[in-house]
Write the structure tokens for this entry.
Amino acid sequence: MNAAQTYKHIIFQKRTYFRSCLIALLFLGLAAGEGYIRGYDEAEELAMEEERTEDIQKNPSKVPYIEHFKHYAPSVGWDWELLAAVAYHESRFNPNTVSPGGARGLMQLMPVTGEKFGLNDSTFFLPEDNIRAGCKYITRLQHQFKGVKDSVEMAKFVLASYNAGPAHILDARALARKYGANPDRWDDVEYYIGMLRYEEYYTDSVVRYGFFKGRETTAYVHNTLRTYRQIQHGEFDASKRLIARRETLPADSADLAPDSSAHSPAYIPSPLVNPSVVAAHTVAVPHHPDTSHISAEKVEIPSEK
């Protein structure tokens, strides 16, 4: 190959490289666009958001779709305010949201899960249908944690699993059981969720699903319960939050910092409260007592939401 041919070959390679980069950037840009609002341009979405804001301001609870939350919450034994809090932290009450991972609608269900619970392309983004399907998924998760006899504690496990799927939560329960903590108490299991990012724990013989950061999930539980309390006490106004925040999914710092008072009984869904269980108590979680003979229970893992 002479000098001229070598030069042409280099130019051709550079052009191919830059063309590939442009295509990749275009693909990523389209993916990012689909990651937030499906099928609408910015002006249309802004108009719909303003319409939601007006609707919120008309009702005293300052929460949209309140009639649907009130109708379907009893099917899972929750206050409607807790179901609404889940929707807020999933989609910011935007029924047209599509996450970068593909979760859709008000309750952010994955396509396969949504179809399993009755949704299709024409109903996935309808608020009532999405809430109904979300409640069916919550019921599935409640069945997954039926061994947790206290309904207050079960609600916390279900919230964590709604955010991350049940697999890593079950691993953390197995660790709690092995090392002498209470696998049916959220505060104990939360500790081991945090430990799953360390090799000593995620390679433990009772852990089936490996490494898990966990911070986002524990923050999700705390923040959802905090929002639940705010809605119950009339301290939540979704219209102001929508006006102040035009983007939908990216989490802000408040969503990643668990509120220090989140273990207060005021956070617990009132129909689920068992006063004898809710009394404040703290148990020190042991690091490594010699109880390695206890093995993890075998469970079936439902599909992701």
In short: The longest helix spans residues 3-34. The mean pLDDT is 75. The chain has two domains: 1-34, 42-278. Residues 102 and 244 are 25 Å apart (CA to CA).
